[in-house]
Design brief:
This protein has 142 residues and is mainly alpha-helical. It has one domain. The chain contains six helices and no strands. The termini are far apart. InterPro entries: DUF6691. Keywords: Membrane, Transmembrane, Transmembrane helix. Pfam families: DUF6691 (PF20398).
Length: 142
């Protein structure tokens, strides 16, 4: 049942991305082009998502546990360290260059554009590269 609801959640997310037009990297890039063809639709999509998410969290936190887990799995660290800031900066730079974030790129695979596949291959490669480098990074940090 847990996997069914995970698939349904992904379907709802992908449908929202498609309806809002956020599968088109030009819409995202135009949001960042303040001096040119500035498009505010991304701000409205994110604002709508923020409102729905905040309402959802208010309902979810009233429960003792999630529907399909024994307990909530929350991050324990509140530190703003170099990994967090660097990762956020890298994500933002990649988003600004490509016009895609991984969440929007996955439903955009259905468009058949080679750029989307290249982006997702690059992101996946970055995940695996990070895993390979993780032991070496941990040694240099100590």
């Amino acid at each position: 049942m847990k996997h069914l609801f995970a698939c349904l959640t992904g379907l709802v997310f992908g449908t929202g991305i498609a309806i809002s037009g956020m599968m088109d990297p030009a819409k995202v890039l135009n949001f960042f082009d303040i001096a040119g063809a500035w498009d505010l639709s991304l701000m409205f999509v994110m604002g709508g998502a923020l409102i729905i998410t905040s309402l959802g969290y208010r309902l979810v936190w009233r429960r003792a546990a999630p529907l399909f887990e024994q307990s909530f799995q929350l991050p324990t660290s509140t530190a703003l360290d170099a990994r967090l800031i660097g990762g956020a900066a890298l994500f933002g730079i990649g988003w600004g260059i490509a016009g895609f974030c991984p969440g929007a790129a996955i439903p955009a695979l259905g468009t058949g554009r080679w750029e989307v596949a290249l982006f997702l291959v690059s992101v996946t490669g970055g995940f695996y590269l990070r895993r390979l480098l993780s032991p070496a990074l941990a040694k240099t940090a100590t």
